[in-house]
Each structure stands twice: as structure tokens, then as C-alpha cells.
Amino acid sequence: MTPSLLAADELAGILDRIRAPFRVATGAEITVECNPESVTRETLRGYRGAGVNRLSLGVQSVDDAILVRLGRLHTAEEARRALEAARAEGFSNLSIDLMYGLPGLDVPGWRRAIDTVLDWEPDHLSAYGLTLDAGSRWGGTGVDGLPHEDAVVAQYWELAGVASARGFEHYEISNYARPGFRSRHNQIYWRAAEYLAAGPGACGFVGDVRYQNAKPLTRYCDSLERSALPIESVERLSPRQRLAERLILGLRTADGIPAAWLAERLSGDTRLRGHVDAWRAQGLLREADGGVRLTEGGFLLSDALFVELL
What we know:
The chain is an alpha/beta fold. It folds into three domains: 3-182, Transcription Regulator spoIIAA; 191-236, no CATH class; 241-309, Arc Repressor Mutant, subunit A (Orthogonal Bundle), CATH 1.10.10. The protein has helices at residues 8-19, 41-50, 64-70, 76-88, 107-119, 137-141, 149-165, 184-190, 217-225, 239-251, 259-266, 270-281, 296-300, 302-309; strands spanning 31-34, 54-60, 94-100, 124-129, 169-172, 175-177, 203-206, 209-213, 231-236, 257-258, 285-288, 291-294. The protein has a six-stranded mixed sheet, covered by helices on one side. A hairpin with a 2-residue loop joins strand 11 and strand 12. The radius of gyration is 21 Å and the shape is globular. The model has no long low-confidence stretch (mean pLDDT 93).
């Protein structure tokens, strides 16, 4: 559920319950994801009063025809007004979600979308290529008008170039930020650090254990009423899996990983070493100052690269 579907006082109540047993650091990043149509000045004022200091707006597209096809309930103009309202209520850390590779979206249209959104002056931008998951509506039925793979690649490079020219750092495969506005909570995941799960379907990671809470609300609540943890699945990572995860997650970022981590994974694996040498030769991976990172081209081909590291 998008958190902004909660009334401000409901969200404030949840945050107060979190602060009771836990010490929340001063200035901790507290983000709420919002659909533009659910944003009102009153709600935003309530979020600010509850301690929320960062908003992420699910804009996805600024083409109203594409928004209709996506099943979104807002228009581009309503998205712009939502961001302006958030600024007016004192939010100084605003993120926008966009998608490329959408049906009916060509490269010029994508360039217009990038320029439009960046003209709104967000502090952070997340941009994801459309993927047709098996369980999604389009994944099951298909969809007409999807751009050719070459056009999707061109859209990726268009965003990388324009965002850089506008002063945004491409700090993670799908994320761009003005200096000082990287998403703090997402960096926890990419650094393979620990985090707790709260809420139905939420995932957590502690030590070498990954776990997920029950998704059905009834089952989740039943566990809590029995004073039991609502955990539905647990996976303990082996040292090999833990290393592979640290490599993959770390290489998603512009900071990269220590070269020693990659050397550990390559030890005794001549096949993988050959792949890594090929990545270097193709300019997909660079090593410097004791670290390893993917280039822009490496980001683009990262899924194929990561499969080899598993």
C-alpha cells in the first residue's frame, strides 16, 4: 500500500509507536511514498508535523495518454502541483519516480519528460525501465507499442546525459541525486547492511538471515494478536551467497566495492576471471584506488554481469 493512503494522524501514530521502543537518530531520514492524486496541503502539513522529512512522488510519466494506459489516477499537471504543494509545506527533500521503455514512448518523448520533470527541480530522481513481470497485467496479456530494445537503450543514455548536465549524480543504477540528496534508506540495502521488517509482506535482513513477513493482512494480524512474530519465510545465506550479494549490491552503486571483495570471489575461478577481464576490456568495469566500480555502460548491462557473480 502506498503510505500516503494513510491519514496523517494514522501515520503519526505509527511513527510514535516506533519511537517508543527505539531511539530514532536526530535528523533520521523519514520518507513517505505518495501518489500525486493523494497529496493535499492538509495531509502534507500533517506529515511534516509527524516528522516526515522526505517525499517520493510516483509520477511515472508526464504524458497523460501513457498515464491512462498505466492505470494511474493523476495527470502530469496534478503531479507538478503535488510537488509544488510539498515545497510550499516545507519539504526540502523531494524525489520523483519515472519509467522509461513504456508503450508509446519514443526517445524525443522521453527527452521531453526528463526536461519537464527536472524543470520542477526535484532533489532526487529514480528512473526504471519497464519490465513485464509474469504476475503483472501486461506480463500476462502483453501490450502493444513497446519501444524496440535499441530505443530503450537510447532512452537510458538520454537520461544519463541530461541528468549529469543538470548536476545530478548517477549514484546507483536507477537513481540520480543532487549533491547531498542520495536516498539514505536505499543505501542501506545496497551496502548489504541490516534492516528490520515492519508491516505485511515487509522484508528484513539481520546477520546472515533474510526474512519476510506474512503478506495477507489477516494472517499478519493473527500472529501479532498471539504475540508471535509475523515471519512467514526465512533464508540463511551461506558465506558464498553473502559474498555474492555484497558484490552485486555494491556494484549497483557509483561507489563500487573494495577490490579485495572481487579478488576473493575470483579466487580459483578461472572462468569468472575471464569474464571479469572481458568486462574490463569492454570498458564496463574499472579499478582504481583499491576499489572496483561499473561504468555507465556497465550499469546498462549489469543484470547480465551480475548473473556471473552468483
